Amino acid sequence: MSATYDRLIALLTKLHEAPPGDTTPDATYAELDVDSLTLVEIVMHVERELGVTIEDSELHPDLSLGATAKLIDERLAG
Amino acid sequence: MPSDAAPPPEPDDRALAYAPRAAVLCGLAGWLPPRVVTNDELSTYLDTSDEWIATRTGICQRHFADPGQATSDLAVEAGRRALESAGTESVDAVVVATTTPDRSCPATAPLVAHRLGLTGVAAFDVSAVCTGFVYGLATAAGLITAGVAERVLLIGADTYTTIIDPLDRANAIIFGDGAGAVVLRAGDADEPGAIGHFDLGSDGAEEEMIMVAAGGSRQRSRRDEQPSHADRHFSMEGRAVFRHAITRMTGSVRASLAAAEWKVDDVDHLVPHQANQRILRAVADDLGLPRERCVSNAESVGNTGAASIPLALAGAAAGNVIEPGDRVLLTAFGGGLTWGSCALRWPDRTPRTPTAPAAAAPVTAQEGGPLAP
């Protein structure tokens, strides 16, 4: 996966406790038991650290980690 | 060489040798209504659990006002204890910060002043939702520095259970009732307890983020329409509030730090409005402040609105968490939107513990509370 994906995983690991083996590209936030406030924290950190704008509603519980990285990369590409 | 080599200082130079007049903290107390409501009790009538509430909010219990108990009842208890703590019976003004006044007219402060034996003093309310206490501090400090008052009693008091739908799971688990109060006296800006370096702000474009839609002129001017159940109760956009609370409190703390010429690491205790543990943790992390320097009592009282900062201060001071000379930074965020921060060095003063009366044991659900028939 991309460098963005690796940064996302590093961020998620900092904000949420999940077994390392569970954080696969296909895993969704709901499956990882990431709650709605942690999703907001992820959005805030991604915006700050990567300089992209994401709506809170775009990071929904059924989004996968791989799809999130793709979303961020698309924003970075403009 | 002239014989009078050392001329007397110019009047202006002498004036600069004195610190400017400031409001100094000299009394502090909190009061909580005796009825304790645990997460387990909430789980008996809400689709939730102790584990769910505790992991998502860090709140384990809160206090509820009894049926018939109004905000002024809580404010009087906290105010009386703060006056005792300050060793005084008289002040020149009473300011009550609240979102849940006894009535929409008049303000709650005159009644509180009267019941404290202070009839005749200036008395009014400050309405800035959960930022009310910080706005109240700025207001009280202004009365003192302008020479309007020598001593001010400031009380933050709220009974959120009176505006929250008890069956609204999102909000009913967060809020509790309580009151906290401080006494401020005129003093010098460079003495311990002097309150200053305020940063205050607002953004009315986001008024709908935290709101009780009905009950004011917007709704009452539509004379023939009855407000809906939802409009008569407190509403909050949780995710948006979470984001704005973190961003605004962090920014406001930085502004106060800059005004005080303190670095983040100089702060011994950050005392934020106790919205929930998640927000407090995120604010501390974003500032780069060790979490243990963030004072929190949300676990035992929940979000008590304007009362939350003085309750947290009283608890921390009574537990010797905050000690004389410590650098303390207060910050808050609330509906409006509003936010604000200020700084002080902790004075040499032993405040009272923020507890309910010793005789009052926790009572069970069937004895009262918002769900009682």
What key phrases describe this protein's structure?
heterodimer, A: 78 residues, Non-ribosomal Peptide Synthetase Peptidyl Carrier Protein, Chain A, globular, B: 373 residues, Peroxisomal Thiolase, Chain A, domain 1, nine-stranded mixed β-sheet, two-stranded antiparallel ribbon, disordered C terminus
Your description of this structure?
The complex is a heterodimer of chains A (78) and B (373). Chain A is mainly alpha-helical and 78 residues long. Chain A has a single domain, classed as ACP-like (Non-ribosomal Peptide Synthetase Peptidyl Carrier Protein, Chain A), CATH 1.10.1200. Chain A is built from three helices and no strands. Chain A has helices spanning 3-15, 36-50, 65-77. In chain A, α1 packs across α2 (36-50) and α1 packs across α3 (65-77). The longest helix of chain A has 15 residues, at 36-50. Chain A is globular, with a radius of gyration of 11 Å. The two termini of chain A are 20 Å apart. Chain B is α+β, with helices and mostly antiparallel strands. Chain B has twelve helices and 13 strands. Chain B has helices at 11-16, 39-43, 50-57, 71-86, 109-115, 132-145, 169-172, 217-220, 238-260, 277-287, 298-301, 308-318, and strands spanning 21-31, 35-38, 61-64, 93-97, 122-126, 151-159, 177-188, 194-202, 210-212, 234-236, 269-272, 327-334, 338-345. Chain B has a nine-stranded mixed sheet with strand order 5-4-6-7-1-8-13-12-11, with helices on both faces. A two-stranded antiparallel ribbon of chain B has the order 2-3. In chain B, strands 9-10 form a two-stranded antiparallel sheet. In chain B, α9 packs across α10 (277-287). Chain B starts with 10 loop residues before the first helix and ends in a 28-residue tail after the last strand. Mean pLDDT of chain B is 90; it is low at 353-373. Chains A and B meet through α2 of A and α9 of B.
